[in-house]
Amino acid sequence: MEIGIAQVQTYLFHLFFAFSISFLFFSLIILLLRLRPWCNCHLCKTYLSSSWHTKFTNLSDWYTHLLKESAAGTVHIHVLGTTITANPANVEHMLKTRFENYPKGKQFSSILGDFLGHGIFNSDGDIWRFQRKMASLELGSVSVRSYAFKIVSTEINDRLIPFLESISGRNDSGIVDIQDLFRRFAFDTICKISFGLDPGCVDLNLPMSDFANAFDTASRLSAVRATTTAPIVWKLKRFLNVGSEKELKHAIQMVDNLAQAVIRERRKIGFSTGHDLLSRFMGAIQEQVDDKFLRDIVVSFLLAGRDTVASGLTTFYLLLSQNPAVAAAIREEIEINKKDDDLCPGQLQNMHYVHAALYESLRLYPPVQFDSKFSAEDDVLPDGTFIQKGTRVMYHPYAMGRMESIWGEDCLEFKPERWLCDGVFTPESLFKYPVFQAGPRVCLGKELSIMEMKTVIVAIMHRFNIEVLMSKEKPQFALGLTASIKGGVPARVLHQN
C-alpha cells in the first residue's frame, strides 16, 4: 500500500503533538524537583510566591529585582541553569581577564546559527578573530567614517526631516510611531553604508519591505529559541518543519535571497569601485571566499547597524519627553554650536551634553539588555561564585544601569550630568557600563552608531518637538534579540518655536 506525503506529514504531526504533551508533563515534574533546593532561600520564596509577570512588566525587571536582592550582585537561576551577574568585577573577569574561558559557546551558536550563521556575533576562535581583524581595519578608517557621516546626513536632510515637516503641527494625522520611523531610517542608512543599497523605507506611505519584515521575524523567532528551556523542543519542531520553526525557516530564506542578490551584484560590478562596507571587505580579503561567509557578514551588519540604532533613538525620545529640563539643555547646546542647517563632525563632537544625554539613555535602556557566554572550564568569579563547566553565564547591562551599588541612589533618574566633568563628557569603565560590551569583543561599530544617533538627535531637536504619547509607566518590551517596545511608541511632531 502506498503512503502519500500528506499522510506521512499528518502522522509526524500527531507524533510530535503526543511527544510535546509528554515532554511538558515530565518537564513540570523535573521543574518542581529542581525548585526544591530553593525552598528555604529568599529568592525562592519570591519566585514561588508569584510569577514574575504578575509583579514586573518585563523579564529584565524581574532579573533586576533578583540581582538587587543579592549582596554580591549575582544569582543562579536553577530552573534555567543560568548564572546572572550585575557585578562589574565579574563582567571584567568574563570579558577580559578570563576571556578565553567565556566564549559564545556551541549552545548559543546553535540557537542563532540558522539566522546569523558564522557571523562575528555568533562565532568564536579563528573565525571570529579573522572577522574581527577585518572589521577593525575597515570600521576604524577615516574614509569609512566620513562616508557613513555623509550618508546619514543625506538621509536625514532628504528624507527624515521632510517627512517630519510634512506631518508636524497636525492633529491626529501628526502622530507617528517613532519606533517604526527610526527602524525604517536605520534600515535605509545601514543598507546604504554596508551594501550601497537603498530600500527607501522612510516613506511611511509604503509598507515596510518584505526583506525588512523577514529580518524582524527571523530576529524575533531566534529569540524564542533562546528563551526555550529545553533545546530539544525547537530542534524537533525544526526537524518536522512545523509552527514557529516553519515560519523562521521561511523568513531566513527571504533574508538569504536578498543577501545573495547583493553579493552577486557586488561580484558583477566589481568590489574595487564600491565604497560600501561589503565591497571594502571583499577587496581587503583579496580571495574568492564563498557566498555563505559573505552572507553571514551581511546579516551581522544589518543586525548591528539597524536594530541598535533604532532602539537607542526610540528610548532616548521616550525619556526626553518625561524630562523637559534635559530637552531644554540639549537645545541650548545645539543653538550654541550649530551655526547653520549643515552639521559637520566637528560641531557634533563639541556637543558634550548631547553625548551625555545619549549615554544616560543607553544606561537605562540598552539596546541589548543582556548577553550570554558559556564557561569552557570550571571557574570562580571575583565575588566568589563558583561556575561549573558548561554553565551559561549572563551579564546584564539593563540591570546594571539600575544598581545603586554602581550608580548611586539616583540610579533610576535620567541625569546626563553624571557623565560630565566641568562640562566635558567623561566616560565610565566599560565593565561598569557594558552597553557596547567590553574587552576583546567590544563593539567595533560603537563610534558609527553614536555618530548616527547624535546626528539624528541634533537635526530633529533643532527643528521639532517630539511629544511621546505614552504613560510614564515602564514600557513593555517585545521578545527579540534587541530591545523593542510592544505596540510601538506613538508621538506627536510639533515645530520647534
Question: Any overview of this molecule?
Answer:
By secondary structure, the protein is an alpha+beta fold. It has a single domain, classed as Cytochrome p450 (Orthogonal Bundle), CATH 1.10.630.10. It contains 20 helices and 13 strands. It has helices at 5-35, 42-49, 52-55, 59-69, 88-97, 105-116, 125-139, 142-167, 178-195, 210-227, 231-240, 243-269, 277-285, 291-321, 324-337, 345-349, 352-364, 397-400, 404-407, 446-461; strands at residues 74-77, 82-85, 175-177, 371-374, 379-380, 386-387, 392-395, 420-421, 424-425, 464-468, 477-478, 484-485, 490-495. A four-stranded mixed sheet has the order 1-2-7-4, with helices on both faces. The protein is globular. Its cofactor is heme. The chain crosses the membrane at residues 12-35. GO terms for molecular function: heme binding; iron ion binding; monooxygenase activity; oxidoreductase activity, acting on paired donors, with incorporation or reduction of molecular oxygen.
Concise structural overview:
This protein is an alpha+beta fold and 497 residues long. It has helices spanning 5-35, 42-49, 52-55, 59-69, 88-97, 105-116, 125-139, 142-167, 178-195, 210-227, 231-240, 243-269, 277-285, 291-321, 324-337, 345-349, 352-364, 397-400, 404-407, 446-461, and strands at residues 74-77, 82-85, 175-177, 371-374, 379-380, 386-387, 392-395, 420-421, 424-425, 464-468, 477-478, 484-485, 490-495.
Write down how many β-strands occur, each being a DSSP E stretch of 2 or more residues: 13
Number of helices: 20
CATH architecture annotation name? Orthogonal Bundle
Q: What can be said about the biggest beta sheet?
A: 4 strands, mixed
